[in-house]
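Hey, I was hoping to borrow your eyes for a little while. No rush at all, and the record is pasted right below:
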Amino acid sequence: MKALEGVRVLDFTHVQSGPTCTQLMAWFGAEVIKVERPGVGDITRGQLRDLPDVDSLYFTMLNANKKSITLDTKNEGGKRVLERLVKSCDVLVENFAPGALDRMGFSWERIQELNPRMIYASVKGFGPGPYEDCKVYENVAQCTGGSASTTGFEDGPPLVTGAQIGDSGTGLHLALGIVTALFQREKSGRGQRVLAAMQDGVLNLARVKLRDQQRLAHGPLKEYPQYANGGFTDECPRAGNASGGGQPGWAVKTKGGGANDYIYVIIQPPGWAEYMKLCGRAELIDDPDWATPEARLHKLDKCFGIIEEWTKTKDKFEVMEILNKINIPCGPILSMKELAAEPSLRATGTIVEVDHPTRGKYLTVGNPIKLSDSPTDVERSPLLGEHTLEILSGVLDYSEEEIESIRQSGAVGKIAEPVAAE
């Protein structure tokens, strides 16, 4: 049995934040019904295409394990189908612009009338306040949630990160909120609203920087590279590659000289002597100007420079092997090419190869959360409207005559032909 088996999700999401949430629920066994516009579908089906006339990787990697129904919600017949869907589902998830579902006639109050047990979950850019009606995208969320102002080097501009902490990060937060609301419903019998604001999600992931903002009031942040130069203002600074924790860390070069020939190393007090032995600088182990963490704080750049002279003589995997044997934390900078080819990630289902009827084989990420009693089977994303007939008949229990009437009304567009089993 899958963990969320028996939970039915009405998926009104598009692009990334909402689909991340509903894909996670689908991986855990929920039946996710993705509602899409006839003939158009989720906009990401056609964005960033690498192959003509097939669903993009942008879409396929965010919509695994889902079913697709096409529905014109402006059509009166389409609205009646949607009402039946609301009555038949446990969760509705949306990431429309503010007020879009209300304008369709499906406000929270109306949804409660149709299904008092419904969990109505939304991704928005901002929570209640002066910006709550503003639209937000990934990089906007990173900028307004505190991440960009604390990312990059001190002499450069604020930077956004390649990790989608605004979109996918908020989707993960929303999924937790939905599962929590479902758990509470078991006791209360009632549905409720769940809101995840992208600004809030980014700030939650950047909480250590809010920690550091408050620490500034009581003195300099000694683990930051600015400490050596006394270069602090009254705002939490950009930290470059500093570790963000209690132990100094930095990315140092390794043999090869390529863009990703680096390894991230951390200097913990017990590791200093081991580093200096490896680097041929044993005289610095007991030197009072180098021997203690306090003595090294003003010259961390020199410390990492010494270590880098050694790491440049070996490739990043050799360095990792040597340092791990003596319990020194480190991590090679792995490119997407290297990750895609890593056998252990295939073995754990973290990276999965999927076969698609029009695209062919492609790689996607698998479920990052592993449950011992509910393993995840990653299935391909649906074709546009692929499950319309199945949902109308099998989920909503419409008769053949009613389905024909719905089709004639234009409520579902052209009903897709069933795709042969793979």
Summary: The chain has two domains: 8-204+341-409, 208-253+262-332. The mean pLDDT is 95. The domain at 208-253+262-332 is CATH 3.30.1540.10 (formyl-coa transferase, domain 3). The chain is about 35% helix and 15% strand.
